[in-house]
Amino acid sequence: MKVKEKYQDLTRDQLLEKVYQLGAGYESNSYSCSQSAVAALHEVIGFDDVIVKVSSSLAAGTATQVSGTCGALAGGIIVLDYFFGRPVERLSSEVLIPDNIMAIQSALEAPKELVQKYISKYGTINCSGIMTKKFGRPYYLNDPDEFTKFEEAGGHSDPEKCADMVGQAASWAMEILLDKGAIEL
Q: pTM of this prediction?
């Protein structure tokens, strides 16, 4: 699959920067780190719209609980699975098929690369751990007072906070798609 026509004249580095900027912009203006990372990739690649929709509530460590996986990482993994994931026809509810089990191992390779990039940069894949690194502490976003404090600390307005992390996740996912040949310039 090729990137959308309007992005085909970009160099690899320009494309990765464009995806970063889109991810950061979506996060700053639309919130949902998971959906924003996916939307950035969708803008450049043009896969099914429903993939953007189904990534909504993985934001803020899963449904704003801040205790799960970083939403932007989860969004990036969703897109990688769109390209590399095990197809539904490889699943069986009736019989164990060893080749189908091996297919999941192959599908895990691209997401593992994204996870490693996260661990290298942030030391964790957990939302609260990344918040601690970026803000000095996690915020429980379901509490209105905590959400206000998060916003006052630059949650969606400081380009070095969540916007940076979402842009980075989208860019890394795009880099993996390019490196593995799923996407061409």
A: 0.94
Q: What is the pLDDT of residue 143?
A: 94
Domain tally, the chain: 1
- Over residues 83-101, the pLDDT tens digits come to 999 998 888 899 988 888 8
Give the domain extent around 9: 5-176
Does residue 47 lie within any of the structural domains? yes
Residue 125 lies in a domain: yes
Q: Write out the chain in H/E/C secondary structure.
A: CECCHHHCCCCHHHHHHHHHHHHHHHHHHHCCHHHHHHHHHHHHHCCCHHHHHHCHHHCCCCCCCCCCECHHHHHHHHHHHHHHCCCHHHCCCCCCCHHHHHHHHHHCHHHHHHHHHHHHHHCCCEHHHHHHHHHCCCCCCCCHHHHHHHHHCCCCCCCCCHHHHHHHHHHHHHHHHHHCCCCEC
